[in-house]
Amino acid sequence: MAGSTDVAALEESFRKFAIYGDTKATGQEMTGKNWAKLCKECKVMDGKGVTGTDVDIVFSKVKGKTARVIGYEEFKKALEELAPKRFKGKSKEEAYESICQLVAGKEPTNVGVTKAATGGAVDRLTDTSKYTGSHKERFDESGKGKGKSGRENIVDTSGYVGAYKNAGTYDAKMKK
């Protein structure tokens, strides 16, 4: 069977795949979905000798009648079941050893996870220097938002009309 270091790595892989995608999982039991993911990502499922159907059938064989998950011991039995199918020319022990080497030390990957797009359209739409009209007044020259002063009209109580160029000169003229 597998050496002591392989067993530790195999058990660690089991735990990592068991908790993948489930925040409440403890790592003691693996679902059928995670078993299929493990087989796919560790290249146990090759599409010829071992297919997705084979993986599901083996999972159903090793789990209990009413159970929906498998433990570590059932996981090892499932690998033993799949080993001769995956490695046809080898003996059962050699096949099991080979399949353990495929799985040991692996962890789930996030394949196909969408990343935030920062293409030309996003840059163009968030460039404040290209804003016009009332939206332009909400940002200063550096592109930083002005906050409340950019959103509300602040009332000028000085008594002068808006854009009057001699504002504030009345007192200076009258004192002379």
Task: List the SSEs and their pairings.
Layout: H1 4-19, E1 30-31, H2 32-41, H3 52-62, E2 69-70, H4 72-86, H5 92-103, H6 120-125, H7 133-136, H8 148-151, H9 170-174
Antiparallel strand pairs: 1-2
Question: Which labels suit this protein?
Answer:
single chain, 2 strands, about 180 residues, two-stranded antiparallel sheet, mainly alpha, rod-shaped
How would you characterize this protein structure?
The chain is mainly α and 176 residues long. The chain has helices at residues 4-19, 32-41, 52-62, 72-86, 92-103, 120-125, 133-136, 148-151, 170-174; strands at 30-31, 69-70. It has a two-stranded antiparallel sheet.
In brief:
The chain has 176 residues and is mostly helical. It contains nine helices and two strands; from the N terminus they run H-E-H-H-E-H-H-H-H-H-H. The protein is rod-shaped and about 110 Å long.
